[in-house]
Amino acid sequence: MNRIKKSFIYLALIAMGLVGSSAMALETTGTPGAPDATTTISGKQLPAPAPKFGGVIKHDALTSKPWWAPRIVPPKKAPNILLIITDDAGFGVPSTFGGVIPTPTMDKIANAGLRYNRVFSTALCSPTRAALITGRNHHSVGFGVISEQSTGFPGYNSIIGKDKATIGRILLDNGYCTSWFGKDHNTPAFAASQVGPFDQWPTGMGFEYFYGFVGGDSNQWQPNLFRNTTQIYPFEGKPGWNLITGMADDAIAYINRMHQTDPSKPIFIKYAPGATHAPHHPTKEWVDKIHAMHLFDDGYNKLRERIYENQKRLGVIDKDAKLTPWPNEVLKPWDELSPEAKKLFIRQVEVFAAYAAYSDHEIGRVIKAFEDLGRLDDTLIIYINGDNGTSAEGGPLGTPNEVAFFNGINEIPVDVQMKWYDVWGTEHTYNHMSAGWSWAFDTPFDWFKQNASRLGGINQNMVVSWPAHIKDKGALRQQFIHVIDVVPTILEATGISAPEVVDGIKQKPIEGTSFLYTFDAKNAKAPSRHKTQYFEMMGQWALYDQGWLLSTKVNRAPWQAFGAANPDPLNNQVFQLYDLTKDFSQAHDIAAQHPDKVKELRAKFVAEAKKYQVFPMDASVAARVVAPRPNITAGRTEFVYTTPMVGLPQGDSPFLLDSSYTITAEVTVPEGGGEGMILTSGGRFGGYGFYLLKGKPVFLWNLVDLKRIKWEGPEALTPGKHTLEFDFKYDGLGLGTLAFNNMSGLGRSGVGTLKVDGKAVQSITMKRTMPMILQWDESFDIGSDTLTGVNDADYKPPFTLTAKLDKLTIKVDRPQLTPEDIKKLEKSMAEALDGTPLRRVQPGPG
């Protein structure tokens, strides 16, 4: 196209209002008004203003001139973008950074591009992910914690504001194909049902296509899976199917579909596998591969030393970095474990390692899809290892059921856990490994996920490749980078501007700093452009400032979620100071030598906290899970259903825990008898079910797969109409002295009575009840049971109800907690959880 024609097009577009007269970087193709015309946009306003009609309209079409608005496209050299983030993986997990777990895909990307050893997260999953997709700090976008802990303050409500558009939305309106695969933990738990609203789902945040699960984690064998906003049910996985492979298959199909439809259109994919968040669910093939390698036979202490030496040899940590000491007071050294414990723990970690290796392999298949299409050279791949440090939420002993941890049961004895040894990592477990392995996988740092003041919780690593642009292949970069820097980097790489207005709403500034400058070999040793960064998670905090790191001393291990909260997390702290320019691993506390620097950085943290909505700080953990939030059940005490339905998530369904309640089912039994699920919530790893079994009415509570309490009618229901009732009288929350067990409080006792046609047929006292949460990735279902069942010995899903459900009524008598009551919860639960018998109950029905 000659210069005169380009100028004509540009002037015409100015006249249309599509671009401003100062936007001289405009790129256009085709003839203005023709169907094949394209244009880039200034991007300051999204969506771009509708252009003025440029044709001619007369009374008849023959004398009129048609005109088409140009199709909006990205700048000519804008690359495909594959943004990968794995889950709960610390610095020492991948082989790329000295780990023993083979990650050849990450190795390959590193060798074709760059390694980064100073990449920082927020210390928790969905806060990191909210920062990653918006380019703003996690409190700035409402994700001071996960949505399941959200509270009614701007920094903590788990709502990404309309004034903070995501990278998906920006790229979409600039002509990209945009998609999201895997984990979505940025939809509020109280907005995850099919009643919507869907503006906080991936498809409502600019990602045109979504295939994955909503929530923090998911059973990889039987996931609560969505395509866009539609649940994929009945589940269509084949025997042995696993979501890690399933999402790779779907992503590859998407890449090919987009390329074949329009090869010129660049693709943006956010790829977020569930690995290696619990449950650790790899295929047997990968478990066998890792087992044959004997990587962990000498224990977690030796593993840590081996990873440290590997890191030194590879040069991915400073040559003088010190290995911080093993926490004997927190985690028992390997040599002090019993032979049975060692056997169990090795099984736990082999399954974890298999999960990591399996996920990396499947990521490689997705990358290969770009290569097979000849598009790899112009694909920017950002592969971030972990959204926080390795998780220790399994506690020192690990657990076959993570749901148990979130109900305060984090010390299931080794001999009890051994009952799951042969099925560890299969569909029969919701497993997590011992925290000893987690500490080792954060080498050379210490502590874990949740610990925002220690590098083990926040210092990730990353590899980046862009073959057409990065020439310094295999090199290491050590500049300070935070996940908020990814969005501005992508925008600079694509030549797309951050918008000033989206949907008529003025946008808050991007808070990150592009690290594109590090792609150039001449900037290999350039100073970090990201100068200052705060960290805060559940009352633990830190401030990075040009190499200095002010940290609060860890005062709570991640598995200690039920303890009394620090009442003044801003000031009631032991402060530590580190010079990361000389102390790579945060090993030498020099606070005593530099009191003025401590004072200066404390003041800077307060300023950053005010700026980014960190206040009010809250150190509570479990108490925030039970705090009220605006779900669709808020304020309701009665729920009526007249037709079958499935898929209502826990955050939007009637909450029966810590309350008295009555469930009444009016059914019509057909000739020949009835069977099937009337109502269930949760699944194999924690929940309840009300069903007909061989015609007999049954109500069952599954207490985190450790104990099952079952009420059963004495005989099958006769054909015709019947009224079935389960009435539970909870022993109440004595709000003056909240406690957990024998006093008033959460998770305490109650009497359940099953009635048939008004007559009580069985009463059982439950000495303990579930205090906090049901299995979160299983839904509230009426008329059948999706995914896993609450009692495998009785039925297999979907266990469709063959009787007619005329009416189902749930009435809940819930004690009302005052703010003062909420504040008392954690202290009282910590006291009551000490020694609770539920920890040592035998598994299986009974």
UniProtKB/TrEMBL annotation:
Single GO MF annotation: metal ion binding
The organism's place on the tree of life at top rank: Bacteria
Signal peptide per UniProt: 1-25
Keyword Mitochondrion: no
Keyword Magnesium: no
Pfam family, one: Sulfatase
Entry-linked CDD domains: PAS_like
Gene3D superfamilies from the UniProt entry: 3.30.1120.10, Alkaline Phosphatase, subunit A (3.40.720.10)
Matches recorded under InterPro entries: Alkaline_phosphatase_core_sf (IPR017850), Sulfatase (IPR050738), Sulfatase_CS (IPR024607), Sulfatase_N (IPR000917)
Domain Sulfatase N-terminal: residue ranges: 79-496
Keywords: Calcium, Hydrolase, Metal-binding, Signal
Family the entry assigns: Belongs to the sulfatase family.
Protein name stated in the entry: Arylsulfatase
Organism of this sequence: Desulfoferula mesophila
